[in-house]
Structure formats: C-alpha cells, structure tokens
UniProtKB/TrEMBL annotation:
Species for this entry: Oryzias sinensis (Chinese medaka)
Pfam families cross-referenced by the UniProt entry: Glyco_hydro_79n
Listed name of the protein: Heparanase 2
Keyword field: Signal
Example of a GO cellular component annotation carried by this entry: extracellular space
The keyword Signal is annotated on this UniProt entry: yes
GO aspect biological process, one term: extracellular matrix organization
UniProt signal peptide: 1-31
Organism superkingdom: Eukaryota
GO terms for MF: hydrolase activity, acting on glycosyl bonds
InterPro entries linked to this entry: GH (IPR017853), Glyco_hydro_79 (IPR005199)
C-alpha cells in the first residue's frame, strides 16, 4: 500500500512564522528591500544602481524544508465516462501507457460525476450499449474489440496493444457522437447508470499497473436502500472479485456529496455519509486482502457554505475512518472566452482561500490529517475548448502545484488524464497537450521537499484600498531523487512570469555563483497563449514514437549569470552542486 510522507523538522515552524507563504515571500534585511512583488517605481523615481538593473533578488533556505509531501504529489484522475464512450477499451494502447508511465509514481483516481452511477457486474463480457454510431461499422468495430481482448489475454504480465489506425478513427467518431449524450446529461444534471464489468475492471487495473500508477477506485454512494442507508451489494461483489485477482488498490466513496440533492433529489447529510464511510471501512476489513487498504474521502465539492458544513459534520463523526481528506477545486466556468482570463492573479489566489477553509475544518477535528485536492482542473464541466487545453491553462496548473505544495496539500489529483472534456493532459489522438509536458518536467525535476523562498525587489507604494498582487511567482523544492542527472543536494526553482515584459532574477545568498540548468517552456507556433504545443529551450516537444519521450535537454547558465524570464512564460531552474543540507537527507 502507498504510504504518505511525514512532515518534518521543528525548524519549519520558525520559517513559517517569518515568511509569507503566498507566492513571493519577503525577508527584510540590510541588503534586501521589503516587498512582495516587483512593480515599477513611482513616476520620477530613479532606479538605484544594481537594484535598478535587477528586478528581483532570490535566495532559498537550504537548511530545512517547510513541507514534505507525498512522493505521488502530482497524481491523475480518469473519468468513468471512458466506459460509456468506449475509450476504456483502448487504455491498453502502448502510447497511452507510455504517457501515463512518464508521470509515475502517482495515484490514479477513477472517479468523477458518474462515480455515483456505477454498477458492478461480475461478468467478463456483458452486452452493453456503446452509444450512437453508424450502423455500417458498428458490428465490425465490436468484433475488433473482441479480437483485441483475446490477443491481450494471451499476453503475460503487462498487456499492451498497438491498435490499427482505422480502429482508432472509428472509435474517435463514436466517442464524438457519445460526447453529445454526455453533454446533455451534464447540462440537465441527470445521469444514466454505467455498468462496470469484471472485464472493464481488468482493463482499468491493467492500465494503472502497466503505467506504475496506484489505482483509487470510486464507489457508488447513491446506491441507497429505502431507508436511505447505503446499499453495499454491488460494492461487496466488487471487493470480492478484486481481492480474488489480488488487485492492490485504494478506495473512495462518492463524488461531491454536497451536490446529491441537485442530481437525484435525494440528500445525504454529513451524519449519514459518516455512517456510510464507517460501513465501507468495516467491509474492507472483512475482506482479508483489503483489511489494511487505504480509504479516502469525502471528496467534497468546492468549499462553499454547504460543502464546508458537510465536511465539518463528516470530520466530526468519521474523521478517523479516512486516511486522507479529499475535496475538489475548479477555477473557471464555460463563460470564459479569453486566454488572458487564465492569467488573472485574483483567479489564482482563490485557491489559497479555499485551502485555508478546508485545512481549518480538518485541523479542528483531526489535527495533522493529510489533505488532498481530490479533483483539480482549470475549468468546470469538462473545460473549454481551445482554452483549458492550451498553453494559457498551464499558468493555473503550475501555480496550483506551487500553492498547494507550500500550504501542505499532500496530493493533487489532476482531472483528467485522458478523454472527457477539454481539461485533459492527453488528447484523443494520444498526443500530449501543454499541461502534460509541464507535468512531465515537474515530475522529473521537482521533489517532495518544499523549501522557503526569500525574495527582495522594488515595488511602488500601494494605493489606498488596492491590493498589489504578484505577477512573478517563485517556488522551490529539492530536486527529485528519481532524477539521476542531479546529485542529492540540488535545488529546483520554478518561476511563473505573468508580466507582459521580460523580468530579471539575480540569485543571491546561498544560490550565488552556482551553475544553473534552465528548462524554459514556451508556446510553440503562431497561436501564442492558445498554442497546443510547447517548446523547451527553443525545441518543440513531441513523442519520438509510441515508446520514446523527447530528450529534456537543459540550457546551462554560467555561474553568476542573471536569469532572464521572457514575458508570459514558465521556467524550471536546477541549481546544481549546491549541496543543500535540507536536500541531502
């Protein structure tokens, strides 16, 4: 079973007291001016010498981390709609497995709105409705799926396939038709039941296992008895089947229980939900293979009044039942029409407020309990085409990871890895989108230990009643131990430049005169912020073939050189051979 990392070092609290853990932290000193972000000097003001040429001085506390996160901090989510639109049958694709493996180690949460409409049927091949589609290909298509399944069954170990292009093209046509059905359900908030068969579960687990992901399976909490208690019949059958197959996975019950009344007209209050989770824990303990399995929940919605009340009641009655507390956050809705809207600092800062609300409730009842963002996406309702699947959305994604890490959120589950809507990391042609490449670089360079950042720069005097929000956001971690190109003790800094002009950053203090490896990610092509392709240090990123990633080659900056961040870009910077004490252990 996966184990959560433990927070460390009493020194962390001392740093937390002296730092503002929001975006850019300031430490006033004789050599640093006190500010939170750079702004132009007031009219008529002169830029004094060195500071006039350098927008910001940057240092990092290398003595001790302020947080230690789960090794699976950046994790993934897969929506149950893949069963309905047929993409589940293609999770064995060699390319898709390769892309998922690139983001391991990670959790894979199988859940979403349709979690509460899943019904398990212990049959290998159940005749099922595959959605609308041209009659002329449907029979051959179904036969191809069966033949593919037979071929996979003959493989030992990890089962992967190279599906013919014509088969994938027919699947894309069928999925496009089914998207209309899924969209209608979403807009009406009325969802039909989905049957997950034993064969479907086998394919799902095979995908997770081949990719090195730990599966978290969401269970239907709206399968209720007449007295509104949770009906466990389907769940018990699923548990027995999974245990018989020795599927090592974790569990979750329901999705956004605070919204049940609007979907089914049947509310489940916090007391009843706590009883349901207690019942599920007892069920897991009754199945020998899962008696120590992890259980996560309650996966509450965005922490507004109703969700907070439900979470508070749940923690009061069942806080000890779950291994981590999960909740969801989405930033924008379908009314957003401009790429620039994803760059608004006010929008980015909403996450900090929401995290504070959730952690306050959790710490009131279960101090120290791990908090997970159990569902995170740039936009509600599956996202926005040509916006939430472009470079523009990556600013929200990277800032989310930075803020969540600094505030101690142990795991962030990104919705969705593949398929449904426009917030996914991989499109239906199995091509990585910008957020995938950012996630890949993050995974390879950023470790679980979070470091405190010290920044100083110039800032104009704030006007009365006006909040100056940071447009230069800097986060620091120990470099990932899984990256063998860097020795222990290296530090990774990632910088988000929301300014429309180039900004310069001078490494100071312990970072002074160190060799730096730059990984600068920019949009590729003429579309700018709406680009669906990314370049790393000027080279376009794309898969070489179904099994080969491009080389993530850094640009070496000589010791002492100032970092120049182009406008509206995101960069990762590895400080080599710094031998940071916090990162050696």
């Amino acid at each position: 079973m996966p184990k959560s990392s433990q927070c460390v070092s009493p020194r962390s609290s001392q740093w937390m007291a002296s730092l503002t853990i929001l975006l850019l932290q300031i430490v006033p000193s004789s050599s640093y001016s006190s500010s939170s972000a750079y702004q132009r000097p007031a009219a008529g003001g002169k830029r004094p010498g060195f500071l006039g040429r350098t927008l910001i001085l940057l240092d990092v506390n290398t003595r001790s981390p302020i947080r230690v996160l789960n090794d699976n901090f950046l994790s993934l989510q897969l929506d149950p709609s893949v069963i309905k639109d047929g993409w589940l049958d293609f999770l064995s694709s060699k390319r898709l497995v390769t892309l998922a493996r690139g983001l391991s180690p990670a959790f894979l949460r199988f859940g979403g709105k349709r979690t509460d409409f899943l019904q398990f049927n212990n049959q290998k091949n159940l005749a099922k409705f595959r959605g609308p589609g041209p009659d002329y290909y449907l029979k051959n298509y179904e036969d191809d799926i069966v033949r593919s399944d037979i071929a996979l069954d003959k493989q030992k170990g990890c089962k992967v396939a190279n599906h013919p292009d014509i088969m994938l093209e027919l699947q894309r046509e069928k999925a496009a038709s089914m998207q209309l059905v899924l969209l209608k359900e979403q807009l009406s908030n009325i969802y039909s039941n989905i049957t997950i068969t034993a064969r479907s579960l086998d394919k799902l687990y095979n995908f997770a296992d081949c990719a090195g992901l730990h599966l978290i399976l969401g269970l239907n909490a709206l399968h209720r008895n007449p007295d509104n208690s949770w009906n466990t019949t389907s769940t018990l059958s699923l548990l027995k089947y999974s245990a018989g197959k020795k599927y090592n996975m974790s569990w979750e019950l329901g999705n956004e229980p605070n919204a049940y009344r609007s979907m089914k007209g049947r509310a489940v209050n916090s007391t009843q939900l706590a009883q349901d989770y207690t019942k599920l824990r007892n069920l897991l303990q009754s199945v020998r293979y899962y008696h120590r399995a992890h259980l996560f929940g309650p996966n509450a919605g965005r922490p507004r009044k109703n969700a907070i009340l439900l979470l508070d009641g749940f923690m009061k009655n069942a806080g000890s039942v779950v291994d981590a507390v999960t909740w969801q956050h989405y930033f924008v809705d379908g009314r957003v029409k401009k790429a620039e809207d994803f760059l608004k600092t006010r929008l980015m800062d909403t996450l900090t407020v929401q995290i504070n609300k959730v952690t306050q409730v959790v710490n009131t009842h279960s101090p120290g309990k791990k908090v997970w963002l159990g569902g995170l996406g740039p936009a509600w309702s599956g996202g926005i085409n040509n916006l939430s699947n472009t470079y523009a959305a990556s600013f929200l994604w990277m800032n989310t990871l930075g803020v969540a890490a600094v505030q101690g959120v142990d795991v962030v589950l990104r919705h969705s890895f593949f398929d449904y809507g426009y917030s996914h990391l991989v499109d239906q042609h199995f091509n990585p989108l910008p957020d995938y490449w950012f996630s890949l670089v993050f995974k390879q360079l950023v470790g679980p230990k979070v470091l405190a950042v010290r920044v100083a720069g110039l800032q104009r005097k704030p006007q009365p009643g006006r909040v100056i929000r940071d447009k230069l956001r800097i986060y620091a971690h120990c470099t990932s131990y899984h990256n063998h190109n860097y020795v222990r003790g290296s530090i990774t800094i990632y910088i988000i430049n929301l300014h429309r002009s180039r900004k310069k950053i001078k490494l100071a203090g312990t970072l002074r005169n160190k060799t730096v490896h730059q990984y600068l990610l920019q949009p590729y092509g003429p579309d700018g912020l709406r680009a669906r392709h990314v370049q790393l240090n000027g080279v376009k990123l794309h898969m070489q073939d179904n099994e080969t990633f491009p080389e993530l080659k850094p640009k070496t900056l000589r010791a002492g050189r100032t970092i120049a961040m182009p406008p509206l870009t995101i960069g990762f910077y590895v400080i080599k051979n710094i031998n940071a004490y916090a990162c050696r252990r």
